[in-house]
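INPUT
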Amino acid sequence: MPMLETSQLRPEPSKGKAIVAEHLSKTFRVTKGVLKRTKTPVVAVKDVSFEVDHGELFGLVGPNGTGKTTTIKMLTTMLIPTSGTASILGYNIQKDANEIRKRIGIVLGGERGLYTRVSAVDNLRYFADLYGVPAKLRDKRVEELLQFMGLWDRARDRVETYSKGMKQRLHLARGLINDPQVIFMDEPTIGLDPEIAKETRKMIQELVEKGKTILLTTHYMFEADELCRRVAIIRNGEIVALDTPSGLKKYVMDTSIVEVEGFGITEKEVCQFREASEVLAISAELGEDKQILKIQTARGSEIISQVQEILKNSRIYDMKIKEPTLEDAYLRLVEGSRR
Amino acid sequence: MMLGQLRVIYSAFRLAMLHWIADPQWVIPNVIAPFVFTFVALTLFKGAGGPFGLYAVLGGGMMGMWGNTLYSSGFAIEFEKWQGTLEDVMATPSHLLHVIAGKSISNALFGLTNMVAILVIASLIFRVDLGVASPVLFAVSIVLTLLSVSALGLIFASAFVLSRYTQVFANGLEFPIYVISGSMFPIALLPFWIHPASYILGPTWGIEAVRIATAESIVPTVFWVNLSIMVVITFIYVLLAGFLFSKVETKARRDGSLVEA
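OUTPUT
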């Protein structure tokens, strides 16, 4: 894959941290009712602080609706914080929004966010102009990016004919069109086939190797584990833990995971586990054909008889005790603290 | 204006053109409808004498220009929201005003091609003698009126960033402007209390300049006075649109109203 050319217009990276968020908070006012309308404040992000080094891939993970996207939007100047502040490459998000916009790339992901009636080339040329990419560099960079993303053969086709994976790669290409120093990626692999998601992760790693700073949100823990140097776990708009993936795993070092695969397991039984004092956290995938429970406990194999007792009306296909992963640490921090 | 800003306007103009070509269904409400209007007006007033032919052609042309501009101003924002690109566009260092200006000019230009088509049809089929005394002044006044119409569209577009009812507003604003700008008939026929609204519309002066350019005996001073007033009003529109866009963008960033509501 060709190396991306670094713009000659780009100034030297600022000293210090690439991203600094200080006590960022965002409260939206949501309208309720039809005839009698009232505005209710909804806190999306509360007192979020963290720093990201130059060239670091930093993960922001958490369940849906916990403030990951709102945090990214504040850092990328798309939203003004209610309180707190942040700086990107030394520029303040409120005072120097335009300076920041020139130096960052945003990948919001999903199937939207592209002009589907025109080609990939037209999409990228348009955004290159909006980012002020010098005219003599523009077409060269568009070609390089489409080559890099493996889209060059279909570059002149309408985007509406692209697969989900191709659209995602085009999103990535657009996020790089201004050769940004800092890239914000909001769930870049969501909804992608495993193979394409793997390819996307590889591309993200290559970008970090090229010196880019990346802030990535995801709710795939294995992805955060594989890619990120440090991970912040966000719950209800607040950061509840911030550490390296191995550091976060220490939160669950004293626990083991009992994984149960069965049939006929109901929500009622899951609630019984939640109420059991030996259970620190539980995740349940209640599919139609089979159900999978992941029970965190400090008692290890001692809990097996209790599991069998609660699931006496269900069929158990398999039960094993596993070492905790980052996902378990995440579950403990998010789910466990709700208890 | 800086070269970079012109490049953004051109790029938005080009993208809007590509979308028009890719999706020609808009031809029906924005090109065929004004054409039908002109056809009906010319049929009704055939042989009536006087400046009816001119009013029918200018009315149809103005309908095309304003309809397209208003539509583009309102729909440009709505379209970006539908595509999920509004946030991406606003996250670039370019001003949204320049992006919408490019789209607005592109759509007004489509309206202008409609006017040219109407002129040709009126001349060849209905034998309307517009008697354009000065083709050069006629062309100058038409192009400047087009820019004035585009600038007027920009003011409305700023409000459309915030609202989810853009299409309703756009529909509601379409006919009043035709009427009070004097494109369909002279504003002298309107109640006097509407006249101030007519005079603050740049296109009112532009349409008058177009009409003067078609008159047998042009009074250059009157022509240039009308055109100058329009240019000044258009300039004020652009300044006002710039101010409104800044305010609206800040409000949208504060409320989080950039995404599809």
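end of record. Chain B has a mean pLDDT of 79.
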